[in-house]
Amino acid sequence: MIIYQYIQSLLGFGILKIIFVSLTILSLAGCENDEVVSEKVVSVVEINSSTNVFPIRDKNLYIDENKTTTFDKNETKKVVLVDHNKREIKKDNQQIKKIAPKKEDNSVKLKISDPLYNFQWYLHGSYGINISSIWSDYSGKGVSISVVDSGIESTHPDLRDNIDLVRSFRYEDNSSDPSPSLHELKDPFVDVPHGTSVAGIIGASQNDIGISGIAYESNLVGLNVFSKPDDSSFENAIGYRNIDISSNSWGADLSFGLDDDKIVLDAITEKMQSDDPTIYIFAAGNEESNSEFSSILNSRYTLVIGSLTQDGKIASYSNYGANILCVAPGGEDVEDKKIVTTDLVGDIYGYDLDGDHFDILENRNYEYSNSFYGTSAAVPMVSGVVALMLEANRNLSYRDIKYILAHSCRKVDRDHSSWSENGAKLLFSNHYGFGLIDASKAIVMAKDFKALDSEIVVSKELLDLNLSIPDNNATGIELNFDVDEDIILEYVALEVNINHEYSGDLRILLNSPYNLSTLAYGGTITDDQYMPWIFGTIGFMDERSRGKWSIKIMDMEKGDSGVLNSLKLNLYGHER
Predict the structure, then answer these.
(1) In sequence order, what E strands does 330-421 have?
(2) What is the domain partition of the chain in residue ranges?
(3) pLDDT category, 108, cuts 50, 70, 90?
(4) What would be the CATH architecture of the domain defined by 456-574?
């Protein structure tokens, strides 16, 4: 019997992926402060964790996918809409304005006429991503971005020009239409608008309506994994071929402890070691917990993104960790400080409901929402910027992308205590990573960037240690590695094997020859075992590897004890 937990969110939007006999929870990265009620089921389910607790939606219209839609001579689109149970046709020949052809004049593109652009503080505000100045040269054209999510509404007037209806996929019924299925729309536990909102941030068209997407001419490949959220769907979506960027606004609920998603992690590793690599961008999560508790986020192959508020502060829910590359605007659960983006059309299924309507003239058809937020929103910001970087330089690897972002991010909230300077004079924070992504600076740097030298891996091990970790002792135990090899660091992974009665008690520090990185903080609610566990940190970027590395492990709480069995230090970098 599969055990799962309903998550009641106080902070946003979410979907859970339930797999394995043991408890494994994956949620769309937009929820936090969860209240848990146990339940038993016999199959995989999808669960909504929206602000309204599992709302049962009334009957509403949906587009009948069995009907052909065409443009008639009056340039209007015929859409057949029926109710949930298909008892009767509700409307016919609904008038939808056909999107005008995209203008090629760059001077016109700079004169942004999308009416909701002024509401998109995350693009042009004081703590926005600094995007508009480079739109005259870059639009994301020719770059493919998979949106691994709950589907994209394929007929949305601000998205349909950019959705690849040949390569998109809905896993429930093997359809190339990524729109939420009838099953999803009828299920009160499915957060169906999530993928459409993510897609709008990335690739809404610049077409005189609605919002402006960051990469407004990019190619959106909707992979609707939450229509059938099992291992095979996620494995296929992660391994999808000929994808430049994989945008993932979902992840583990790390408030429950460690999440070791071997299926997804293996799929990422296999893809990155093939002749068809992809840039993987993942949400840090929204539990205000340690992002180091996710095996996916600890992979050097993933770009981990935290969330920033409109005021330039780390969002209250955003996870922290040494694996966070940067932050992007994700908003906060405060009126007028969330993210304006695309929504499912109509006032029933989307976030923009009658009781929470984005009530402006330009949204009279309920096509947009101003209530989206979370690291779910921050991820597509970075996905869009990376698309522009790839358009500027198609030769960039994932390592180049990470390196450029680390050196071009903008430092914000400098008074935050988490900022420190590493041995290469780069400022890094376990909350902010290297800072707020700056699209203009990143693209300027990307354009003429010379690829990093081939990756070099240096490994050191300490085996068969059998060292007791003193209980409730801040001194703990300390071990050292002497590294003779001298490379320029890009990423560091520490594999620990610890048998401890309550691993949440442990504080784990990693010191380079120049700098300190906190991997685990102690006082955490988890009894999962580090047997083994791989922590990752990007904070040593550009430091030299040669010298003494030390690992310190302390038990910060009374009552439980444990033993350190082994350590392995992996240093990833390059030569100049």
Answers:
(1) 339-342, 368-372, 420-421
(2) 59-98, 113-447, 456-574
(3) very low
(4) Sandwich (2.60)
